[in-house]
Amino acid sequence: MNVLWIYAHPDQASLNSALRDEGLAALAEAGHPYRVSDLYGMGWKPTLDRDDFTGDHDDPAGIGQASGHAYERGALSEDITAEQEKLDWADAVVFQFPLWWYAPPAILKGWIDRVFVKGYAYGVTDPDHPGRTLRYGEGVLSGKRVLVLTSIGGPEAAFGPRGINGQLDQVLFPLLHGTFWYTGMSVLPPVAVYSANRLDDQSFRTAADAVCRHVAAIGETRPIPYRSQNGGDYDEELVLRPELSPGGSGLAVHASALAHEEAQGEPQDQPATASADSAFAVSNVDVSMTNRKSTSPATTRS
Fold first, then answer.
1. What are phi and psi of 142, to 5 degrees?
2. pLDDT band at 197, cuts 50/70/90?
3. Residue 177 half-sphere exposure toward CB, CA atoms < 13 A
4. CA separation for the pair 146, 221 (Å, rounded)
5. 3-224+271-280, which class in CATH?
6. Could you give the 3-state DSSP secondary structure of residue 150?
7. Are 3 and 290 in contact (CB under 8 A)?
8. What are the angstrom distances between the C-alpha of 34 and each of 6, 8, 41, 212, 216?
9. What is the pLDDT of residue 26?
10. Spatial contact of 173 and 251, defined as CB atoms under 8 Å apart
11. How far apart are CA 120 and CA 183, in angstroms?
12. C-alpha torsion 95→110→86→277, nearest 10
């Protein structure tokens, strides 16, 4: 399985850097070819603007539509087309980042903004049903798998079902469901390293081994059972039909309870992202590795 690893951390002597190296070694040992996009190392331009197009900078359309026109003309900048070529090559993608203010670093958001342009990652119509857009489980990127690997400064319990920071799968919902599932990718349960700025060597080894296990199994892990837009679960206004998850509301209803129970062997109100096999809590207070500085009680720059 070809794996593209998108890495978004500015420090090469960080926890994330060490986990990346461990994960890449595990991919190689498992026989998965990989490519790496180190966004800070590449000097990735994080802002979408009309400099992303070659040729017609005076397209009167809005920026989203204009970038789609540039994609159709083959007029996107070389750095964007290079990343799209990597994505085309990949069967699976790992997005690795520290959770800063409950979101990925801006440079990673900029990679998505610039690479996932209209006509390439979204805005594609169904040829068999004119007027219907392929999204939420369908589309150009369907068939690809995606795994989020993140480090978090806060403890695991604080990101649990009643934790003050919010349940992790819901904190990441705009990325997992609103971006990756929207474009058709199969979303694997995210892997989180908690209390990431307070790891001792033993806890690091435990976290690294878990990361290696998950990336090596990237082709076999069951995806989160999100509901597809065009599979019959939603009405014409894209509202979940009342007979599904009756009485339920909020983000959790957009994963199928039946599919979840079959895949995970657990009830729907225990999301895969909060399970012990998908998130790792370490609470040691001794820091024996370098560049593990905390800037927030809940997020980390490690």
1. -65, 145
2. confident
3. 19
4. 11
5. alpha beta
6. strand
7. no
8. 11, 16, 17, 14, 12
9. 95
10. yes
11. 9
12. 10
Rounded CA-CA distance 154/198 in Å is: 10
In one-letter notation, the amino acid at residue 172 is L
Cβ atoms of 100 and 299 within 8 Å: the answer is yes
Q: Where are the chain's structural domains?
A: 3-224+271-280
**Residues above pLDDT 70, as percent of the chain:** 82
Q: The tokens 């342009």 sit on which residue? A: 117
- Cα–Cα dist 140/137, whole Å: 10
Rounded Cα distance, 51 and 49, in Å: 5
- Averaged pLDDT for residues 82-99: 97
Helix (H, G, I), strand (E, B) or coil at 152: coil
In degrees, rounded to 5, the angle at the alpha carbon of residue 77 between the alpha carbons of residues 76 and 78 is 120
Q: What is the pLDDT of residues 23-58, one digit of tens each?
A: 999 999 999 999 999 999 999 999 998 888 876 666
**Contact criterion met (CB below 8 Å) for 16 and 24:** no
What are 147's strand-pairing partners? Answer: 94
Query: Do 56 and 75 touch, CB atoms closer than 8 A?
Result: yes
Write down the pLDDT at residue 44.
97
Of the candidate ranges 56-65, 116-125, 131-140, 189-198, the one whose mean pLDDT is the lowest: 56-65
Query: Residue 57: its pLDDT value, please?
Result: 62
Res. 256: pLDDT tops 90: no
Query: What does the pLDDT read at residue 199?
Result: 83
Q: Global pTM?
A: 0.85
The beta strand positions in the chain, using DSSP E, are 3-7, 34-38, 92-98, 145-151, 186-187, 191-193, 279-280
